[in-house]
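ok so i was messing around last nite and threw this chain in just to see what happens. nothing serious, just curious
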Amino acid sequence: MAPKFGTSGLRGLVTELTDELVADYVHAFLSTVKPDTLYVGQDLRPSSPRIAETICATARAAGVDVIDCGALGTPALALSSMAAKAPAIMVTGSHIPADRNGLKFYLADGEVSKTDEAAINAAYAQKSRYEGKASGTYQEAPEAETVYIARYIDAFGPDALKGLKIGVYRHSSVARDTMEAIFTGLGADIVPLAHSDTFIPVDTEAVDPETREKLRAWCQDNHLDAIASTDGDADRPMLTDETGKVIPGDILGVLSAQVLGANSVVTPVSSNDMVRRLPEFDEVILTKIGSPFVIAGMAEAKHPEVVGFEANGGFLLGFEAMLKAPLSPLPTRDCILPILAPLVAAKQAGQSLSQRVAALPPCFTAADRVQEIDRDKAKVFLDGLITDNDTRATFFAPFGTIAAMDLTDGLRVDFDSGDVLHLRPSGNAPEFRIYAQAQSEDQALSLVKAAYQDVAKAVL
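result:
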């Protein structure tokens, strides 16, 4: 299947992301935004340098000045390009395996919308060619990562994490050095863990059992207060408490929104319902899954103090928040803020992270994914559940009596017990996502496990 746009960016197999195809998409993007300057970044996948080089060469030949930021996190690239009022392209496949990669496009003011994606696709189909000035220049900008690091040290203050011992699960996150620099700059002691020179696809939304066991062991063996990590391009956080238990991304989002003083919160329908039960949030807007939909929802919020987050933890700050010092808006998925805010809040309250989470209303989520699915089978399966009452009743009968349905993104079913199952195919990988929600963690995990078996039979 040819590369296509999913929930966030263009994705495809590396073998399909040829120099010709990449160059065509670069021209399509440039033709849409007509820039003088283009910022470029990349993650640590083996294929990323080649793709980034093609982007830079294509843009320069089209008469666009290139600022090459090298290997850095997607939010760090966005921070620099938005400050320069220039568009950007990030080479990353995020959390998916290394045989795939992709491009994330940024306008001068942030992520592209679904309307922008349509315009890029149309320009690509027309084989549009952008012609700027005679020849574009090339400049490397390693300082982009330094600016991103300083953003958080300045905002939270150099003693914000003093006394904490934090493990950094390095794997192949492009932000592994960035995290260590930020934590150290905020006064924490760090313990580097499991560095890898081979790309490891870490899905922070569906951490596998083997990794979870490693996290627990690392916390116990090193007497850690937390372990932090990210996905491949650092727009999704992973944070454990002091026991090594992974804190779900939507819980990190709730904790962060509290710290920042948000009045409006925008989040996909797959996020924990807890956010709708907290009195400090005056407005909660639910969207389809994907940061472009969250950003669109943030633009419609009635309060200026608006934030957005996804179930994977990617956090979008829509206003200037007052911490130790002002923290400027960054309306793109970020991994560092939803790691730092809960850590700092727990420390200031004299609590552990587990105590901080336990103080929230009891509502628990779990998630998993069936990989390497047959997309045609998956479509037939989901369409059948949505349109055929008997098919839907039979499939969900083991889980309870259906009380309500939501078709905002895929199929979400609420049962009269209060449990929830949400099924949807991934928009950017051959995967089928399963989300569950219940009044206990064990029940949420049980729902996902049971649903996984039935879904796998239908989509593989």
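not much to say yet. The chain has 14 helices and 25 strands.
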